[in-house]
Design goal:
- By secondary structure, this protein is an alpha+beta fold.
- Helix content is 27%, strand content 18%.
- The chain is built from four helices and six strands; from the N terminus they run E-E-E-H-E-H-H-E-E-H.
- The strands form two sheets. It has a four-stranded mixed β-sheet with strand order 4-3-5-6, with helices on one face.
- A hairpin with a 5-residue loop joins strand 1 and strand 2.
- The longest helix is centred in the N-terminal third of the chain and has 12 residues.
- The chain is globular, with a radius of gyration of 14 Å.
- Keywords: Oxidoreductase, Peroxidase.
- This is Glutathione peroxidase.
- GO terms for molecular function: peroxidase activity.
């Protein structure tokens, strides 16, 4: 059985508590992000995806994470400023989370137990969640935001 993420609470980058159930009825792309990663330029593609699909009930939720190569050491304020000024990011950013290890955030505990189960390998791994809060696809870091298989999965989840 697919587990829903709807009951999980997260903190916005500004400290506001949000339950992922607040996004019920929307298709979500959850991404662990980092400012000093070889994949950081994917912010631009993620913003393009967001602009393309946001009016159809699509959200990107970005979770800064310092678990991989210490590539997100900055303060939340600096992360927010970086994303805004460098990539004009308008999708929601959240507080830093641990995607792996003993302090793994409950969100990532759920995401990594959902088939295909397994650890998040690196920054910018993407989880696609359907309108019911269920993970329906997972894409490794090297899959760019404009990759046909990712775009097709989003379109399918929205339809």
């Amino acid at each position: 059985m697919t587990q829903s993420i709807s009951d999980i609470s997260v903190q916005s980058i500004t400290g506001q508590e949000i339950t992922l159930g607040d996004y019920a009825g929307k298709v979500l792309l959850l991404v662990n992000v980092a400012s000093y990663c070889g994949y950081t330029s994917q912010y631009a593609g993620l913003q393009q995806l967001y602009d393309r699909f946001k009016d159809q009930g699509f959200e990107i939720l970005a979770f800064p994470c310092n678990d991989y190569g210490q590539q997100e050491p900055d303060s939340l304020e600096k992360i927010q400023q970086f994303c805004s000024t460098r990539y004009s990011v308008t999708f929601p950013l959240f507080e830093k989370v641990h995607a792996k290890g003993a302090d793994q955030h409950p969100l990532y505990q759920t995401l990594t137990q959902t088939p295909p189960a397994g650890e998040v390998a690196w920054n910018f791994e993407k989880f696609l969640v359907n309108k019911n809060g269920e993970v329906v696809a997972r894409f490794k870091s090297a899959v760019s935001p404009d990759a046909p298989e990712l775009v097709a999965a989003i379109e399918n989840a929205l339809s």
